[in-house]
Design a protein that fits this description.
With 247 residues, the chain is mainly β. The protein folds into two domains: 1-129; 133-247. The protein has one helix at residues 229-245; strands spanning 15-21, 27-34, 49-56, 67-72, 77-86, 93-101, 108-116, 122-128, 136-143, 149-156, 161-168, 173-175, 182-184, 190-192, 197-201, 211-215. The two termini are 38 Å apart.
Length: 247
């Protein structure tokens, strides 16, 4: 059991938080703090934003000193989203943070990718370049069992729900074989099977629904037959039918 404890964060209204299960069985809370200030600072070393984690362990009281993953002294930025996953190929965890530069005439969105170990040691930080032509309302990063990550963003235009995806390992980037963006159903229900196949729900008709699938790029060789696909397919259909029956 978790020890009886209360988590208190400073300036909670300005934070973006996400609880994450770690590869070593522990949990962490990762959060992004940004000042969103356009003031010219006298001290260029004052932090204007950062990414931090707090570790949670069963039966132990939380250590209040957060681990610093990233800090910046650049003013005029605001973190607006964060998503993480484990690394199936390689080590540690990967998080992608979405943010806006607020001191520009036109709002410019950036994506920051941070790779780190379960100890909190950071071994890679890089920017992603993804320019979309529709408003993003949700995004996530999903670790793939054959290496790399699926970077997925969902949004809407005036008529449809859209989904935009690409596969990357940090140095190489590949588009999937489906239209990009693709029109999905209202909830954008999708799942990745153990063999790197993505299954996606398409818009429903009055009396019908349909799925589409595509095999995602594999960065690593197939070392053997991966199991439990039937379980994941069953879970996907249960999620889909639950959503469909509640319409």
């Amino acid at each position: 059991m978790l020890a009886n404890d209360t988590l208190i964060f400073p300036n909670i209204s300005s934070l973006i938080l996400n609880p994450i299960a770690m590869v070593d069985g522990r949990y962490m809370i990762i959060y992004a703090d940004s000042k969103n200030s356009n003031i010219i600072l006298q001290n260029p070393f004052v932090s204007q934003g950062g990414i931090y984690i707090m570790f949670l362990e069963y039966g132990k009281v939380v250590k209040w000193e957060p681990v610093v993953l990233y800090q910046t002294s650049i003013s005029g930025l605001k973190f607006i989203g964060i998503d993480c996953d484990i690394a199936y190929i390689g080590v540690g965890q990967t998080c992608i943070i979405m943010g806006n530069f607020t001191n520009l005439a036109v709002t410019d969105t950036f994506y920051l990718k941070i790779d780190f170990l379960s100890s909190g040691v950071v071994f890679n930080i890089e920017l992603y370049n993804a320019q979309l032509n529709f408003p993003v309302v949700d995004y996530n990063v999903t670790s793939l069992r054959y290496g790399g990550y699926l970077f997925s963003e969902q949004g809407t235009n005036t008529e449809n729900h859209l989904m935009y995806d690409y596969i990357t390992n940090g140095s190489e980037t590949y588009a999937w074989d489906l239209p990009n963006p693709i029109i999905t159903n209202y909830a954008s229900v999708w799942i990745i099977l153990n063999n790197n196949t993505l299954v996606l729900s398409l818009p429903e008709g009055i009396q019908n629904w349909s799925l589409i699938s595509t095999e995602l790029f594999k960065f690593e060789k197939e070392w053997g037959k991966l199991m439990r696909e039937k379980m994941k397919v069953k879970k996907f259909f249960l999620t889909f039918f639950k959503y469909y029956m509640n319409l």
